[in-house]
Amino acid sequence: MNIHEYQAKEVLKSYGVRIQEGIVAETPEAALEAAKKLNAETGTSWYVIKAQIHAGGRGKGKVQETDSNGVVLAKKLEDVAEKAKNILGGTLVTHQTGPEGKKVNKVLIAEDVYYPGDSEPKEYYLSILLDRAKGSNVIMASTEGGMDIEEVAENHPEKIIKEWIDPKVGLQGFQARKVAFKLGLEGNAFKEMVKFITALYAAYEGTDSSQFEINPVLKTSDNKILAVDAKVNLDDNALYRHKDLADLRDLAEEDPLEVEAGESGLNYVKLEGNVGCMVNGAGLAMATMDMIKLSGGEPANFLDVGGGANATTVEAGFRIILKDPNVKAILINVFGGIVRCDRIANGVVEAYKSIGDISVPIIVRLQGTNAEEGARIIDESGLKVSSAITLKEAAEKVKSAIA
Hints:
metal-binding, 403 residues, D-amino Acid Aminotransferase, Chain A, domain 1, 35% helix, 19 strands
């Protein structure tokens, strides 16, 4: 589960990670009040206004309606409301949102941390994630922090520092010092970075996250180390242990169909294809998507109805798939193990009748317990549904349906 930058920073702060302070606002007027409060609390006189969406590249992104960047600087208090107005309510397009962009409902008013001092501010990159190949967490860092880190990773991989953490013992002090040393830091900045990495790793483990990305990590002109941005991805499977973090979910940032599917207990991911698929089991779902591609189609979604599929879940799946205008056919591929194929077939028939006229062809492939009985129920239903027993037969029927 992704969370917003302002939420991520509050999580990090609770673990002792130094952050760029800021206050979230949903209107231009609230943005101005936030700036005034920030001035009183931090003394900042310049204000960074940052769009809050679940996507990176905001600084280079453009708000379609006003041509404003997603991250702007107000050098005067009286400019804050106008600059926030140019972002709020607009559609921000970045390299991660795609051309459709995302609507901006909130902005973060943050303090200026690039102030003059004894040395030049310096940006770094730092992330923590699970390396599945090695079965351990890895800290990735680079001296080339900022908006072009993807280009650095692609063209200059030697500039990416990696430090793997043994899960049996956790992060050791020497490892945090090793990363700070490789980043070329010394003196107080070195000590600050070691503290930063240690606190960040504690936050990563304490929240059961799947990824932390801090880009940039800033060394200020007076050698403080702090998070200017924060991208945190929480592990959905661990949210039952973190009710407070689960409450940070912003449904407005998620695909409405995926939200609806979740409320019905379905695992659904929208894709860009033309064949809707409904399957019981994630492994079978992946195989079904491959089969659709081999038949000349493109999967329109990943939809796993689970092992206890019934008329209610099948109907919910139908309704969600049919809301995608790109769908030209629907393939239901079910292995009857926990649930019998005849029950699935009856569920399909009941759901079809409940929804009413369905304009796209439906192919139902049933295999397993009572598969032949299930196929007979489908074939004798009198509905515009055709059955299949083998994967090859189902693929041929999909190909014919979308031709």
